[in-house]
Amino acid sequence: MRSTENDSLPQEPTPVKNQNPQSLAIYWLCTISAVGLVALFFFTRKELTYEEKVFIEHVRPVVEESCVKCHGAKEKIKGDLNLFELKSVADFTKDPELIQTMIDVLDFEEMPPEDEEPLGSDTREAMLSHLTELFEFAMAAQPDFPTTPIRRMNRFQYNNAVEDLFALKVEVFALPERMVREHGDYFKPETGIMPDSLKAGSRPLGKSQLIGKRLAGVAPFPQDLRAEHGFDNRGDHLSLSPLLLESFLQLSRSIVESRDFNEKNCGIWNDFFAQPESDVSLEIVVEERLSSFLSRAFRQPVDKSIVDRYSTYALSQMEAGESFTDSMKMVASAVIASPRFLYLYDRTAESSESIDDLELASRLSFFLWGSIPDHELLDLAKAGMLKDELVLDTQIERMLKDRKIKRFCDSFPSQWLQMERIISSVPDQDKFPEFYYTKFRVSIHMMLEPLLLFETILVENRPILELIDSDFSYRSKILDAWYLGGPLPKSMPKTAVPFERVPVLDRREGGVITTAAVMTMTSNPIRTQPITRGAWLASVIFNDPPEPPPADVPPLEDSADKADFDKLTLREQLAIHRENEACAGCHKRIDPLGFALENYGPTGKWREHYENGREVDTEGILFNKYPFKDIVEFKDAILAEKDRFTRAFATHLLSFSLGREIGIADSPSLSRIVEATSKEEYRIHTLIREIVRSDSFHHKPTQLDSENK
Length: 709
What we know:
Elements: H1 4-7, H2 21-44, H3 50-66, H4 89-93, H5 96-107, H6 121-140, E1 151-152, H7 155-165, E2 180-183, E3 197-202, H8 242-257, H9 269-273, H10 282-298, H11 304-319, H12 324-335, H13 339-342, E4 343-344, H14 357-368, H15 375-382, H16 389-401, H17 406-416, H18 420-423, E5 436-437, E6 440-441, H19 443-459, E7 472-475, H20 477-484, E8 497-503, H21 516-521, H22 530-541, H23 562-565, H24 570-577, H25 581-595, E9 620-622, E10 626-628, H26 631-640, H27 642-658, H28 667-679, H29 684-693, H30 695-698
Antiparallel strand pairs: 1-4, 2-3, 3-8, 5-6, 7-8, 9-10
């Protein structure tokens, strides 16, 4: 039998009689050349790489069989995605985001769609494994992290930085964005325990909550807005216009000129502002004091030329008749209005490289304390010791037990949970009169419950899974009565509200997603909004925000005849609404999430039936593989995918820590963060530590290319 190789050779023709020698010579020459070319092909052809074999033998056949029908070579390609064009592993791996998207839709079982032949479980698992291998291969060739724009401190960070720089015993100005006001001294992270009883208030919902010790005559600049699906420390949102720069100059003067900026309230007064002994050289004193002060303010060692510039100004003011203290105040004012103080930045690099110790100190401090590094962090950074893994871990633990970690609790959780929405929630006063309790809203109490839960998880280093399902909560008497449906207390303090740590025995409660705050802020004044609740869960809990709805979608009430419409359940009403093809895709994904919470009314109270007597239906399926009938089974479904929730939460936290959107280059870091966190029972300190250890946290941005400059 002939071999396969011989099959490919040209067959020898039957010799022709009387062929002349010249023809025979040409014939044999062609034959020998053909044999040589075939032999050359077989001996020199390139061996396929492992990735090429994976793509050709495993990925491409499944794509061609199950995907190109909708995402292939035809006039209308769904989602503008043409998988038919991906002919080689090089084509495929040049777009890691596409591979990650394919992994996600297969993992969520969103593809193939319901009207197509499903993949077998073995095929799906194998495809996920192969795609993950190709994703890791693609990422190895594209290590650059997203560019982080240079950004200034936001209002919250500026207040903290000025307070720390001068060691102030009062706040610089009022900050309504701090959702929780601590009354008394309940927040003691160094103990690792939250008290059973505490008093707290809600700053945004009462002017009396903003009355506290702060510098008289100092007015804050406007609050910085939270980025969509992000935070208020995002670099692309924190520019510095000439008008704002002028306001910083005026603000800096008002701070040092405040009557409360004095020896009593300023911790560095004697070391910086106080008149030195008469027999000491002013030039030496000013230079020494400024050298240390500027290094702390600018978060790095300062060149002598910069010190000389500020000291020359201070001495000139003294020569002009100003007192020593007033001259140093003028210098301090200039420092806290300087771009070197206001701006947070890493020196960009031509290629991806690690930040240095000083940059790490600033990045770490603004992440956990919302402020400049303290002396210990700076000293370690200057000595080149901070990046040592043992030293860094020790510092992270120290910072988590320092009371300045309250600033992290004042900033991250309220933004992550989008709690600003509860401030503008106004349930219909005729329909829900009890919400407007004794001239203030019950939302003051509602807001504090999930935030106190977060503080407890952080202080006690509890698993982040308790954000989904906890066996305890903090309740005021009003809030407790609200959940039980009983009469509200006749009176309750409006500022320092007592809260008690209580066990949660019914799993319909517990965690953040079923709190009255979330239920109220995701409802409209008269009814619940499953779509809004589903979008909140998709964005906050799963970090998968839906696209904005089309502009021409009619109101729900306009979807059918009014008389018949009122007899339907909300699920039936929305089914009519979903007949719009432009709406169906997103609704399929977010509606099951929202309906899982439908037993909670517009103000968070439990209900079994709608006002028309129809029974509330909460059945659904999560990730296309976890059917549930009620909220308890829904929580179980989320916890069955605890790594998915952990990755989503870690993505939010990493974005907050870096002040930028998270890109595909951060995916390997997130995978390692989740893996390490899962090994230590999903505890929040582990998660924070792993974020600080990650490549994403330690790498500086690359230079913008010419197209993006």
